[in-house]
Design a protein that fits this description.
alpha+beta; 18 strands; 38% strand
Length: 268
């Protein structure tokens, strides 16, 4: 069993450091590679030829490696090494202990099959969003690339001033909203945040829409697939928290039980 772990050194903190994480993985016989600026993450994972592919990073970098695991029928290992680590939380890992997550590479690890979402040719583990939240993610990334201080507050301020609403058709039904999100399985939805998911194997997508900038009420739909039609030829989106541009109509589908995930035996 060949194990390969990609590490995003820009995602993690100081405890453990990227070097400490790599050393602990190598002690388990896992080959490691630090991602450098401009590296093609999926290409590196694909070229490894490993039967167990791992990613140490935040939510945004996990789906790229999970997609390669789907292509190659490799098992996938998630090492929480980012800011929020929502996927790690929902799959049962301790987000504050990336070293413990390395036990997923051990021979006694357990394997689960979970669903993934797909929009066009892109895989998502958590959710896809368009509208006000996606605009915030794109603005934040622009400020970050310009190395501006306070990138997130600046992006939030510009997004608040933007009053544009989405006019869309979802599975043939017209709607107007400021935010549309589609989750891989059902989320516990709060005021303006997405809570935990009780399961990742329900073979369903969770679509939520809200009209206000601070939504007091969400309209929610559950289905195995959604088609979202928009008037524009391109739309800003956030996929697992990363900015992308998509071309409508957006075809979203749940791939039931598609991903093999290895977890430490002691994960919940």
């Amino acid at each position: 069993m060949r194990c390969f772990l990609l590490i995003n050194p820009r995602s993690g903190g100081d405890d453990p450091s990227p070097d400490e994480l790599a050393e602990a993985a190598q002690e388990r016989g896992v080959e490691t590679h630090f991602l450098a600026e401009g590296d093609d993450c999926p290409a590196l994972a694909r070229a490894s030829g490993a039967s167990v592919l791992g990613m140490a990073g935040g939510d945004g970098s996990l789906a790229a490696v999970a997609g390669v695991a789907l292509e190659t029928d490799a098992a996938f290992v998630c090492i929480p090494f980012g800011t929020r680590n929502h996927f790690a939380r929902d799959v049962g890992l301790d987000r504050d202990d990336p070293l413990a997550a390395l036990a997923a590479f051990d021979d006694d690890a357990v394997e689960r099959r979970i669903d993934v979402g797909k929009v066009g040719d892109r895989i998502f583990l958590n959710n896809v969003s368009i509208g006000v939240y996606a605009g915030l993610v794109h603005e934040r990334e622009q400020h970050r690339r310009r190395r501006e201080a306070l990138a997130r507050p600046r992006a939030l301020f510009k997004t608040v001033l933007h009053r544009h609403r989405l006019r869309a058709r979802v599975n043939g039904e017209d709607l107007v909203a400021r935010v549309i999100f589609v989750g891989n399985n059902r989320y516990d939805v709060h005021l303006f945040t997405l809570g935990e998911r009780e399961r990742l194997d329900g073979a369903e997508l969770h679509l939520g829409t809200a009209a206000g900038w601070l939504p007091r009420a969400w309209e929610q739909r559950i289905a195995p697939r959604f088609t979202i039609e928009l008037d524009s030829e391109r739309v800003q989106a956030a996929i697992d928290g990363e900015p992308l541009t998509l071309e409508p109509p957006l075809e979203l589908v749940s791939l039931a039980g598609a991903l093999r995930v290895r977890l430490p035996r002691r994960a919940k």
